[in-house]
Every structure is written in structure tokens, then in C-alpha cells.
Amino acid sequence: MKNTAAERIFANPKFHHLVRTRNRYAIVMTLLVVIIYFGYILLVAFDKPFLAQKLGTGWVTSLGIPLGLGVIILTILITAFYVHMANTRFDAMAAELLQEAAE
């Protein structure tokens, strides 16, 4: 009986390596975003005086503003890193798997 392409891909150890690697990256990136986001939210909830500190004497801006912007920028950077990995490394691994399955 002839194996289908899907069966050949699933039997290939490179497929399982791809899935493990992609899942590991996704979990790490998700945890980073959750820790950063909830860390900021916990600061807002439990340490308002810390976030209300002015950046300098005579300044109007408080410490919470740059920290909030930092949360947004870090989240965008983490997402961009994951997209870069997906578009380069994971897509290359998937293309190699498809080529091997087609042979």
C-alpha cells in the first residue's frame, strides 16, 4: 500500500522536530508577553506611587508612561521576532519536509 504525502510527512522525524521547535518558541514568546503585560498591570494595581513618580523635577510625565510604552514596544518586538522566525526558519523547515514528501 502506498503512503500518502501526509503520512510520509508525519512519519518524518524532521516534522516532529519542527512542531517541537515551533511550539517551544510560541510558548516562550507567549510567556514573555504575559509576564511583561501582567507585571505592568500588577504595578498599576499594587504600586501606584511607584508609577506616579515624576521622571524629574519639574517634569509632568510620570514613570508609568514610559513603562507603559515599553510594554507595548516589547510586545511588538517579541511578535516581530516570532514572525521573523516563522517566515525564515519554520517555513524553510516546512518546505524541506514538503520536498522530501514529494520525492
Keywords:
mainly alpha
Beta fraction of the residues?
under 5%
Helix content: over 70%
Distance between the termini: 17 Å
Total helix count?
Answer: 4
Task: Write down the Rg.
Answer: 22 Å
State mean pLDDT (0 to 100 scale): 92
State the total count of DSSP E strands.
0
**Poorly predicted residue ranges:** none
- Give the topology string: H per helix, E per strand: HHHH
Number of domains: 1
Protein name: Membrane protein
Keywords: Membrane, Transmembrane, Transmembrane helix
Transmembrane segments: 25-46, 58-83
InterPro entries: DUF485, Inner_membrane_assoc
Could you explain the architecture of this structure?
The chain has helices at 5-11, 13-46, 48-51, 64-102. With 103 residues, it is mainly α. It has one domain (5-102). The longest helix is centred in the last third of the chain and has 39 residues, at 64-102. The model has no long low-confidence stretch (mean pLDDT 92).
